[in-house]
Amino acid sequence: MRSARKKPWKQVKTQQGIKYKYDFQDLNWNIKRIKRTFNTAEEAQAFHDALLKNAMTIAKGEQIERTFGDAMVEFLQQCKQDRKLSLALDLSNLTTLRWPFEYQGKFYRLEELPLHDREFGIVWGIQKYKQDISQTIKRSRLHKKIYHCRREENGTAWYIQPNPNDNQKPAPRLRITDPVIIKQLDKTKGLPAFSNDTLRRRFSLVKTILHTAWHDWRWLASDLSPLIKLEKPGKGRIAFLTGRQFENLVNVSDQYFGYLIRGAKAIGWRKSNLIGLTWDRVIYPEYLTDEQGNRIKIPGYLRVEKFDNSDPNIDPLDLTQRRSRTKNKEYLETIMTSETEQLLRELDKHRREGSDVVFHKGDGEFWGSFRKRWATAKKKAGIHPDFRWHDLRHTWATERVNEGVPENIIMEEQGWKNPQMVKLYGHLKREARYKALKKAAGN
Fold this sequence. Notes:
By secondary structure, the chain is an alpha+beta fold. It has 15 helices and 15 strands. It folds into three domains: 9-64, no CATH class; 71-227, no CATH class; 243-441, Orthogonal Bundle (hpI Integrase, Chain A), CATH 1.10.443.10. The model has no long low-confidence stretch (mean pLDDT 85).
């Protein structure tokens, strides 16, 4: 194969240190111009050799061997073209899959492994990655850096986990030996080991990518996705508030945060949709009089627009755009109950000039992150710290189930397509179960 240079890269000085700029094309072999940056000349050489090998394979009419990194890039590009709303979450999960894992004293990267089921292929890599990450028993952040405490033969040890996005080739973790930093890390509350549900989500994404590579892109001769074993799902969390707990939570919160909490329980929407509610999508009830003189109430409702992936203005990485769009790409209209109407009438008195935001912070602006405020309110109200904001959605569903609202109505109110969602979110309280059993027994 002919090329302008035998080594189509050059050493350059950058703010990050010495790098190797790669620039190559060869139209004779149908290689379009490729520009990359590498940390070492060895990385550039390996990439160049693989590029030439693939070009020769294609010229022979054979199927080239691609890596999981190739599949990750192709998948993300496809998601971006489709304006998939979960792109930001997928990107986050794939970033953690870029962490190098250790096996028999050597570090490997999933993105560098070929798409096959033999040794040192992606199926083997996922298995070893699981084994490696399962040794993490605590995770902490210190000075905006990620640290993992890992179980080892002689006890435990802290490691710094470099950000995979800092370099084109993610760096392996490094053991911490500074006693001052170790002492600080030991004192941090941190997070526990990765849960089964977290690992299940990550590896479900791997299965999706591998299946797509086989079914849609025709990169593989067989489907590798069934070979990726998922962790067993967790038992689920039964978390909702009693009436007294909810009142305590609202009472210890400031006025406008209290409005947001009341809205979450009364409407049941996802946090992003609730925060993003604007007055143009609030339709109050109307009252009409029929021919017989009877007063008829036309129910009010709240509306969330559907996701239109043909809209060029939609950026799936812009999380603020989720405020006014549903997750399942369908319109959502939730009936305005008397509880919701009372809350909205109260909020109507607190509109801010130039703002159309319903649940604003007091200044007409959208709420941003309120993690600390939420944690403080729970502590003051005596609510368990593990109770999540999303569990207010469970509380809404629990109340509807206990009121005897039919399953199909609950599904329509929240835009759920699977009846299993009602079972997941709606938890029958002991009092309601007692009354149902008492009624069935006829006493």
